[in-house]
Amino acid sequence: MPKTAILLIDCPDRKGLVAAIANFLLTQNANILHADQHQDNELGLFFMRIEFSFEQTEGDEGAFRRDFALLAESLNMHWRLEYAERKPKVALFVSQYLHCIADLLQRHQSGELRCEIPVVISNHPDAAALAGFYNIPFHLIEVNRQNKQQAEAQQIKLIEEHGIDLIVLARYMQILSPEFCRRYPLRVINVHHSFLPAFVGAKPYHAAFARGVKLIGSTSHYVTEVLDDGPIIEQDVTRISHTDELDDLIQKGRDLERLVLSRAVRWHLERRILSYANKTVIFS
Amino acid sequence: MPKTAILLIDCPDRKGLVAAIANFLLTQNANILHADQHQDNELGLFFMRIEFSFEQTEGDEGAFRRDFALLAESLNMHWRLEYAERKPKVALFVSQYLHCIADLLQRHQSGELRCEIPVVISNHPDAAALAGFYNIPFHLIEVNRQNKQQAEAQQIKLIEEHGIDLIVLARYMQILSPEFCRRYPLRVINVHHSFLPAFVGAKPYHAAFARGVKLIGSTSHYVTEVLDDGPIIEQDVTRISHTDELDDLIQKGRDLERLVLSRAVRWHLERRILSYANKTVIFS
Amino acid sequence: MPKTAILLIDCPDRKGLVAAIANFLLTQNANILHADQHQDNELGLFFMRIEFSFEQTEGDEGAFRRDFALLAESLNMHWRLEYAERKPKVALFVSQYLHCIADLLQRHQSGELRCEIPVVISNHPDAAALAGFYNIPFHLIEVNRQNKQQAEAQQIKLIEEHGIDLIVLARYMQILSPEFCRRYPLRVINVHHSFLPAFVGAKPYHAAFARGVKLIGSTSHYVTEVLDDGPIIEQDVTRISHTDELDDLIQKGRDLERLVLSRAVRWHLERRILSYANKTVIFS
Amino acid sequence: MPKTAILLIDCPDRKGLVAAIANFLLTQNANILHADQHQDNELGLFFMRIEFSFEQTEGDEGAFRRDFALLAESLNMHWRLEYAERKPKVALFVSQYLHCIADLLQRHQSGELRCEIPVVISNHPDAAALAGFYNIPFHLIEVNRQNKQQAEAQQIKLIEEHGIDLIVLARYMQILSPEFCRRYPLRVINVHHSFLPAFVGAKPYHAAFARGVKLIGSTSHYVTEVLDDGPIIEQDVTRISHTDELDDLIQKGRDLERLVLSRAVRWHLERRILSYANKTVIFS
Fold first, then answer.
1. Which of A208, A268, C120, C149 is least surrounded by Cβ atoms within 10 Å, i.e. has the fewest?
2. Strands lying side by side in the sheet with D215-222
3. Which chains touch C (3+ CB pairs under 8 A)?
């Protein structure tokens, strides 16, 4: 039976790249299902995502990787090969607001998010029942000023035990330590409830209300050490007016948060995101 | 023949306000065509816009104003009465980019903007032909570091001579002096090519490109002494992706600039905007 | 303690309406919290929604209604008075797709939808667990060609027993009989997964895909006897491209369905909707 | 000096296509600047757009075309090779509404639309001054029931004389004959002022107003013999409410018309559109 895999490549741009990659896949008798590429002509960079199917027996993967590694080295490529059949493992972090996690769990159950979710981690007990309903182990790890380091150690222990690929901060209201952020580069997705870079930091809806903006936004991004500054994955906005009070902004904003976070998670799981220069390429 | 007028009111909120205003209009035998009101319950403020028609002979306007002034005083109202037949006078300021002014002039010609435009003022000659095509006197007033004060004096002279009600900065690339801004409060509308408060100041498209945002925006606002900080009238955004280069942002942004500036101008001309607390109420 | 109530009025337009209503509320010592009105000048109709608070003891409601009825009769008004403290009762109808009902139940739990949901009715067992999680009785009423009439009789029995005010078709995939529709005018809200009036009827995503549209939409509307033809409450769209396959349309569409259905339900519960001429007024 | 060219390809999908094309360009020493491809896996079709630069002397183009033709034949490709330096020639058709043509001419002047516009053709004199301002010959060809055939003959004569590549119907309010449509397949772009397929035919804003929709739209499409049924290039919508009267719809719609028509024209000029199965692929 044919297997489906995804190849993600980034490298310095040069003549003959597409030919080299396409020829390699042809020699492997691979069938390209979908391909998308991007060139940053200013920086001289080349990016490609290829989804392909091929007949492969168990032992062949090693050979494929060895052969491609040779090509990649000669062309100075960074690359990842991901088999579609292997589902990424996701940890959901949450605090008291449940709209994002409820949305993600329902999408997961309906088959929209191809991943396993072995663990929900929270600093509040509120999400326990919901996690239970979807049969996902729930871990309460309380966080305060004194115990932050130990709390993160517990979180990391769970992440390592479960072989977590992606951490999703579904309105997790604690700031992660620089050490934690550095440990999982491009593996932690957060949703910030503003149109970044406007209204960085705490209480963005209050700030938007005070400034009198006519649209509010929401942003999903990879987490870096600098607060609300990582590569933006997705943003969306909705219209407000003078008739909207602060509570209306918060309520309308929840819809945006659900949308931009779930899109980011889905794209990450489908290996459609590459990041460079603190930006993202979202392959179609 | 009946005349149409617009009454704009703001005052501290209290019981009986709507009754008092409605009763007054009834005694004047006015016919309400359209009414919209807003209450800021937090600040305890009341805002109303009423469009009404009434039979009135020339001399009656003074009586109407006198009578309403009595009511207004008793209820601590700020108010304006505007007759629809009197078209506001608008001065267009422009520099080298012509897309906004071309758009405004075409809208004006097609009847979409109910105003007179007695003057176009620019620090560059580029818009002269366009102004000429629409039969609007064009004044070239060059501005540099040395002559800023004199240049503004010339501008103010033209504004006063023509009895200008509204100054529209249609991509006018000079920063107005604090004195100029203070002279015309809520009478100068600017378009800033970003989603404020993100990317205040110069080169917002460059900044948006560098940050890797997924939407770019544009903002029209009243000008105050603080750069890009006045009450926001309208904002809009459009989606971009990693495939968009800086020039694409600039090109897509022009469409936003046209839209948000023309909407702000139209709403101002239709007396649909009230401003308070550095925000705007846009009446429907 | 003050009570909050909402008055919804529609009547032929005429001079003095606002004064009459405002004076009445003043005599009742009511405090207007929010008011919005609309005039259809072409049809000569007047619509108003007033939210107000007043001190009222139990017995007073009858007096208020009696007094207002006199005024209303003299001005030929249709009117409703709703007390905010009385929560409407909602029945959710669903079939196999759970994304809308999951969304509505989560919004209800978080306090976004002010209502009681005494019953979930479905022709499939799929939603039973979800209803159970939120502690809402679930009734499986299977529907086929033969038993449609009896099935609707069972549904009606439940609706009457629970004193249901609003029926929400959260992707309920059965067409209701004309008798059912006539029985609950403006009390049944449906979501149709297209931008009506495009793609009426079955399989709208398939039809949209075949036509090659660049945006797909979703529409919530009151149900009438004519399929997908009732007064539209809310619509929204999202962009698609040639890279989206049919499954992508369906997936993107689900997000729209959730949004437009939940907005319609919320607005209905907040008594913000009036319907006339097969259209809706959505008060702010 | 290097030249830039665009290769547009569509053919049955099969293994090795990308390799064959990329290898060919490598042998020609071409430098790929931008590439985008699309596969319709259901229909088994492959589409590609490649923008590339290469050193080429005058005589080489023939050789390039000959060589690529051999490859194309072996792979059953339809293909076009377009040199960026050759600007397409565009004829603008217009009637009385000038907002679209004014917009297109301003965009052309500012360099946004890379084409020549040798002729404006109209059945009304209204656009003559505007065409004159932009130094474009204006031809008044009146059309009525009796002379339609002769009028189209005159239009065709002008089109042929000027070697027109693309005809843009900028709110041209006459229906073209089937013969005319067949003569210029995928070479006539129209803007229809509705969200197709809703509100086909005359007076779509009136129909939208009567139906009570909450969004109005606009659609640009290639013209075919069937009215408003050709491949859709672009669509956009804007929100309306019960407060918008018919004139407001028309006014808001004009902004949509400008946007969707100008985008379609730009994409066509940039050779970013391929059409199949009555749909369009819009390459990025």
1. C149
2. D138-140, D116-122, D89-94, D166-169, D188-192, D215-222, D232-239
3. A, B, D
